[in-house]
């Protein structure tokens, strides 16, 4: 899976996205008709990479930060903007406008101020080539595809193809 979060201007979606992408196979179910289902539902197995760039900030900084911290996959592209200070809107102005001010700042699990003014660096640095881009070729995406294909060569699905045979004795 390739997640393209380039130019992500922010928001609060990172926790949900990384929760789904980091789900591991826990168990399976087999019904009386032989249908096999796995849990947790919605898990996405297989290699994952995320495309990042300098136009992603705020929540666009936090999503690749979380992706890396949870070990979901590699980051490919260029360093994110480094604007991870949350904003809050004050009461409206008489003309209908509003002011937006910095309100909260991010710190990491080790209690260090992080990401603000630094951004999130990629694991694989790939600058977008403007000449190729004008020709309709996305060099960052091409690198991401190559990386995913390389990882797929070694990938073994952790989910069994079939359920075990039903027990034939009590206590099994």
> At the first level of CATH, what is the class?
Alpha Beta
Strand order in the largest sheet: 1-4-5-8
Looking at the overall shape, the CATH architecture is: Alpha-Beta Complex
Element order, helices and strands? EHEEEHEEEEHH
The biggest sheet amounts to: 4 strands, parallel
Helix-residue proportion: 10-25%
Cα Rg: 21 Å
Distance between the termini: 38 Å
Family: Belongs to the peptidase S41B family.
Protein name: Tail specific protease domain-containing protein
Keywords: Cytoplasm, Hydrolase, Protease, Serine protease
GO cellular component, one term: cytoplasm
Write the layout of secondary structure elements.
Layout: E1 2-4, H1 14-21, E2 27-30, E3 36-39, E4 49-52, H2 59-69, E5 74-77, E6 85-89, E7 100-105, E8 124-125, H3 130-134, H4 139-154
Parallel strand pairs: 1-4, 4-5, 5-8
Antiparallel strand pairs: 2-3, 6-7
Helix pairs in contact: 1-2
What key phrases describe this protein's structure?
172 residues, ClpP/crotonase-like_dom_sf, hydrolase, 4 helices, 23% helix, two-stranded antiparallel ribbon, four-stranded parallel beta sheet, 2-enoyl-CoA Hydratase, Chain A, domain 1
What does this structure look like?
The protein has 172 residues and is an alpha/beta fold. The chain has a single domain (2-14, 46-154), classed as 2-enoyl-CoA Hydratase, Chain A, domain 1. Helices cover 23% and strands 19% of the residues. The chain has 4 helices and 8 strands; from the N terminus they run E-H-E-E-E-H-E-E-E-E-H-H. The strands form 3 sheets. Strands 1-4-5-8 form a 4-stranded parallel beta sheet, with helices on both faces. A hairpin with a 5-residue loop joins strand 2 and strand 3 (36-39). Helix 1 packs parallel to helix 2. This is Tail specific protease domain-containing protein. Residues 2-126 form the Tail specific protease domain.
């Amino acid at each position: 899976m390739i997640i393209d979060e380039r130019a992500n201007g922010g928001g609060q979606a990172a926790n949900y996205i990384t929760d789904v992408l980091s789900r591991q196979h826990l168990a399976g179910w087999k019904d009386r008709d032989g249908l096999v289902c796995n849990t947790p539902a919605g898990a996405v197995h297989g290699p994952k990479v995320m495309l990042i760039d300098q136009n992603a900030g705020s929540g666009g900084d936090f999503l690749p930060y979380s992706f890396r911290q949870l070990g979901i996959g590699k980051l490919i592209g260029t360093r994110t903007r480094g604007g991870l200070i949350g904003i809050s809107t004050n009461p409206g102005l008489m003309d209908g406008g509003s002011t937006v001010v910095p309100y909260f700042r991010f710190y990491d699990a080790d209690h260090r101020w992080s990401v603000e003014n630094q951004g999130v660096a990629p694991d694989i640095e790939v600058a977008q080539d403007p000449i190729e881009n004008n020709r309709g070729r996305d060099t960052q995406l091409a690198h991401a595809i190559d990386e995913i294909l390389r990882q797929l060569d070694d990938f073994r699905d952790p989910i069994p193809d079939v359920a075990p045979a039903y027990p034939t004795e009590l206590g099994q």
